[in-house]
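Summarise this fold before class:
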Amino acid sequence: MDLAYIPSPSTGVIHLGPIPLRGYAFCIIIGVFVAVWLGNKRWVARGGKPGTVADIAVWAVPFGLVGGRLYHVITDYQLYFGEGRNWVDAFKIWEGGLGIWGAIALGAVGAWIGCRLRGIPLPAWADALAPGIALAQACGRWGNWFNQELYGRATDLPWAVEISAGPNRDAGTYHPTFLYESLWCIGVAVLVIWADRRFKLGHGRAFALYVAAYCAGRVWIEYMRVDEAHHILGLRLNVWTSIVVFVLAVVYFVLSAKLRPGREEVVEPDRSGAEGEKKAPAPAGADAAVEAKDAEDKPSDPAEAPAKPTVLTKPEPTATATAPSAEPDAAEAPEAKKL
């Protein structure tokens, strides 16, 4: 007899009249708000402008949701395109099924578009958002609890999760791998925040640390799961994905530290700088103030006006020699010959 366990919700949806509130979607929405809130605080602390993180998230979140769903459907296609399956179920995202790898990959494309439009380096934005993404995953994993999915092997531990009978699952108590991953993601967020403050991580290294740390935990958590999945060389596909992504994140972290040490000094350009270089128009009343100043400097009485300095000019030299007269002088004229 089990002395204690974590009960699962009897339903994953609550109806408020005609409006269904699904626990899975609610957890994802909470995670998005937490990521944007924390990312905005970190972005502003690094010299960015408030609201920039949310503006770029408008691009990143939809891309991420589409990417996460595509990854899940592609890697678990038998759940939607196998015999007796309905392919329309692939669009029912509220029933669960988001692959973090697809969400990060395609979400990065959306973030790149948003950063390009704002003239912001993507690595700096990713560094600011990294711990928030980990917390968003911690919140989102509780959506699996509402849907009674992503549990581990059977166990009688006090913190086991109770799973009721349903399609492709047997009633019993199992390892709550959703809880393990949620707690691990919280630890990853704390690690990234601490390391970023301690070592001043920049140029995407805080994000790389988040990816590497998450993958390290995902390997052993994925190994505990018992739900249907594809296997390669005896390991689940997501285990191999975690190993590959972990290696890539570590390589990027090391190379980035050597090629671009330190942290970005400017993360968001000041678009008002170019306009500030132009001569600003004089404020209202400035011309009147200048005229009043000139009036104070100008004496009211002409007698008080300072005399203009006398400019001494050098007289032009007069000619010392005169041109000879056309007619000879009478005194000098020779006497006329007498006839």
The chain has one domain: 13-269. The beta strands are 13-16, 19-22, 161-163, 172-174, 231-232, 235-236.
